[in-house]
Amino acid sequence: MTRSVYLASPEGNTGKSTIALGLLDMFTARVQRVGVFRPVVAAEGSDRVLELLLRHDGVDLDYEDCVGVTYEQVHADADAALDTILTKARALAEQCQVLVVVGSDYTDVAGPTELAFNARVAANLGAPVVLVLGAQGRTPAQVRQVSEVAIGELSARHARVAGIVANRCDPDELDAFRSGLEADVPVWTFPEVPLLSAPSVRDLMTALDGEMVAGEESLLDREAEHMLVGAMGINHMLDRLQEGSFVITPADRGDAVVALLAAHTAGDFPTLAGLALNGGFDLDPQIDRLVRSLGKRLPILRTDLGTFTAAKVVAGTRGLLSSGSQRKVELARSAFEAHVDADAVLAALDVEASDVVTPLMFEHMLYERARASRRHIVLPEGTDDRVLRAASTVLSRGVADLTILGVEQDVRQRAVELGLDLTEARVIDPVTSDLLEQLAQEYARLREHKGMTVERAREIVIDVSYFGTLMVHLGLADGMVSGAQHTTAHTIRPSFETIKTAPGVSIVSSCFFMCLADEVLVYADCAVNPDPDAEQLADIAISSARSAVQFGVEPRIAMLSYSTGESGSGADVEKVRAATELVRQRAPELVVEGPIQYDAAVDPGVAASKMPGSPVAGQATVLIFPDLNTGNNTYKAVQRTSGAVAVGPVLQGLNKPVNDLSRGATVKDIITTVAITAIQAQDAAASAGKDA
């Protein structure tokens, strides 16, 4: 049976999209199929809130299926509109386990009739209502008064209120707002986060009917946190600059334009979000030449509006969470996680967790475990935008503490340009770091038997992979994630020289967590060892079983080959057969089968005919490939044909966690690998404590 939840407000600008996004995160971590529905949308253009929610990784639905009717249809015939909404919502619900319904937006005008219509929709869908109230500029008593009126209206239309959200509260009065509502249902309070309502430079360009004449297009999504009219003297203008300022200045004020661009690039002044040249003038050719030299990345807009009109437009433009800003989405998600008890929400809405494990459930499990005991991870590739974006998310969601390697001014300026918040990250330049001598001395000591000197070590350890690995080796960081820019060899060679393998492990190997539609499998080795012998293959199997247990997968090991059981022969089959026996001898507690073909390992039907009665055949969870070529090709083929999400590669067997990324890694890949590395570090610390 599909469970639905209806988000309703008695007025506009309450921040329902923030709550909807948080609910989607929460539900996709616990159930397999989650949908989203907008009963009423504007007739013109697409609905930005719905577009934001449909971009969520846990939602796989078409836009048209998720829309009910337009405002015009409601005004023309409310009963017919209601019938259409119910028909479409129920059809959508058949595809989902949980449906999040986001009520209408009032087009910024409060109206009791609109709330009544939302109540009728919720009541007819049988969806409990989460009432979202705007607290900005209100006292707790005023918010309570609004809630009483809204609850009365909802109840009169037979809608059941299951929870109340007071959003955009004064951060210092969250408890007062919570206690002031005094409801019989759960109450959650969220602080006002000014950035969530700040417009992006792209929003302002649209509002000004302007065009970009210089700069980097991707930086249009940075938020304009402050506005400044640059019509005063340059000295006073520079005094008033703040981080993230959007400055409006006449295009014929060449002196102001050059001064602003110089300040933006200087490093000692706040960086700008954008610059609007108003008045419809063209820049003087020489000034234009300077602008294109100094402002290569800063978005510079041109508008025909005068100064007063342009300032009025900018001041009246409100940003939306749906504008595409990564930082806004991170803030919204972290606020929800910080202020909402997920178990209480699930209980209030009567949603049961699913037995299956989807890719998103697996990822959420990783994030929750990583947050439980935050570890310090070093990211050596601070010049890569993907790494910076991932770092911003890791920090905002509390997954780990971070050190980023790179020139601090360059790293931080690029992060600000991208609209990212890396204030909590430590940034270290290996070349100038106070740690350089300590790391060089340690590396020289470790490699003394190879003739290494301190002088030569100083040259080597400024390499970011060596610098980061040595930080992990010396306990200055708990783990390292690299490889977005560098090769696997460049990432892991320093580990072989310094960190070494864990006790009882003779070989470093890799595994992928293959997240299928309803389960997680472990594939190994798919990235490191080209052709392991029987001893090494057994080691890989045992390490992979430990990795499976570490991340919640019950290990049933299939030692793969082109033959099943006793049906085949040859050197490759004998290698797998010998490795299987070694696993049984070294780890008798593990369930292992081999040699076995891939189809017999994962397909119950094939297993019933090829290897009946096996505790592994047809239900293997840890698949060990006989060589790198077979493993690499198989995991890619499974990804391509089944849509599986491959998490990894994850290095196993090292004494401390270092993990390698593929050079095609996405931002999400990096975030997930940081979480995995943090969990490995947690377990390593716990194991060290037990040993001590």
TrEMBL record:
Name where it's found. Cytoplasm
Q: Which GO terms describe its cellular component?
A: cytoplasm
Look up and give the organism this protein is from.
Litorihabitans aurantiacus
Q: Tell me the domain of life.
A: Bacteria
Keywords of this protein's UniProt record, alphabetized?
Acyltransferase, Cytoplasm, Transferase
Q: EC number(s) on record?
A: 2.3.1.8
Q: Where mainly found?
A: cytoplasm
Biological function: Involved in acetate metabolism.
NCBIfam families (UniProt xref): PRK05632.1, PRK09653.1, pta
Taxonomic lineage from the root: Bacteria, Bacillati, Actinomycetota, Actinomycetes, Micrococcales
Give any Pfam family that matches.
Answer: AAA_26
- Record field: catalytic activity: acetyl-CoA + phosphate = acetyl phosphate + CoA
Q: Does the keyword Chloroplast apply?
A: no
> Which residue range or ranges hold the Phosphate acetyl/butaryl transferase domain?
362-678
GO molecular function terms here?
Answer: phosphate acetyltransferase activity
Q: Where is the DRTGG domain?
A: 203-314
Name of the protein described by the UniProt record: Phosphate acetyltransferase
Question: What does the entry's domain section say?
Answer: The N-terminal region seems to be important for proper quaternary structure. The C-terminal region contains the substrate-binding site.
Supply the PANTHER family for this chain.
Answer: PHOSPHATE ACETYLTRANSFERASE
The record's annotation in InterPro entries points to: DRTGG (IPR010766), P-Actrans_bac (IPR016475), P-loop_NTPase (IPR027417), P_AcTrfase (IPR004614), P_AcTrfase_dom1 (IPR042113), P_AcTrfase_dom2 (IPR042112), Phos_Acetyltrans/Butyryltrans (IPR050500), PTA_PTB (IPR002505)
Record pathway: Metabolic intermediate biosynthesis; acetyl-CoA biosynthesis; acetyl-CoA from acetate: step 2/2
